[in-house]
Amino acid sequence: MDTSRSSVNMALISAIVAVATIGGLLFGYDSGAVNGTQGGLVEAFDLSPAKLGFTVGSLLIGCAVGAFFAGRLADVIGRKRVMIVAALLFVIGALIQGTTGDHTFFVLARFSGGMAVGAASVLSPLYISEVAPAHIRGRLTTVQQVMIISGLTAAFVVNYFVARAAGDSLGIIAGVKAWRWMYLAQAVPAAVFLVSLFFIPESPRFLVAKGRIAEAKGVLTRLFGEETATRKIGEIEASFSSEHRPRLSDVTAPGTGFRPIVWAGLLLATFQQFVGINIIFYYGETLWKLAGVSESVALERNIISGVVSIAAVFVTIMVIDKIGRKPLLMIGSVGMAVTLGAMTWAFSGAGQDAAGNLQLAETPGYVALVSANLYVIFFNVSWGPVMWVMLGEMFPNQIRGSALAVAGLAQWTANYAVVQSFPWMAENLGLASTYAFYTASAVISFFLVKRFINETKGKELEEMEGWDAPSASNAA
Length: 476
Hints:
The chain is mainly α.
């Protein structure tokens, strides 16, 4: 059943999306805030390189834990309440990281912040998909990716100006080290998120799952009008099992471990990381330097790259509900395979100077630079936002929370594995072989999407199925 477009309360839906996507902003901000603080961490806690790596990486471990438990708790206590818990973790984590002198407390706070990031990564698209009209659900959920990149860019900007005001990250502002202000600044948007959450309704799908029919109808009436709300209540009720409430075992299937639709979600979640997007970001400054610009200009151009990434996601917003999710994923896979292949070629001729720094000849240097930026654009037009859109909408109501728990855990585990394996791969296999792996992952992702992913454009959430196998019309 298509929701009547004329009865949709876009003012309320826009407000809900604006609040929910603050979680995406914090997702990006918390992930990017550590840039520029590592010198301060070493000084404050006397960290070895290994301990510094663990301290920084503890966020990603928390992300995996947070994504899993948030997906499960969303089916138990509700989407809104879990987002409130995540907002509290954001605030507490920021304040402790910015003030504590104890390394153990700092790591625990960073882990807690990671749990909040993981929770926000799965709950924002989940919540938006459950309140948005089907005909614009894709573009509204894609706003999440805009906010993630905006958060990353904001963290870079704040860190840049804080360090500039203090002289460097070890300087002092108002009696506090500059690098600590970089963490404390996170508390401001986190507090805004926390307060705003009290003014939005609970997901009507969760309310129906809990048997709170009158409340669900009230929310749906505010969103779509009374006539549509009455019809949708029955459709939503029919999409849940009459035998039991949603539970984690709903995602499993005899013999294969998970239901086919869950395997499809795991495919999307892991290959979004296997294409190496975070590694590309780590080499952004280096690539600008190889093109002949100074360090300060390289840092400024990293900010520009963030702005370009945001612009790329706006392209997705304009087209995702017109051409669909699956075509965008396939286009992105092709574009990433080509650009990563070009980077593999460029790095195949890389050398090192006396200090061990990466060196490329002029032509390969420019090829690597241009290819890296084109890669980021292809990623942010496709797999960056579309993966989160798909995870938020592709699962049936009965298993959505649990399936997102599993997929979110897989996504952040893959993220951690790629980030942690990169130094070893680069040192022992070389950059060319390392980027060849990311290239191969992009190529494989094209065929996996072609074979196993079904289109969800324009479908109501109650039409989502378990997918025993891709249908003939969607497999092609």
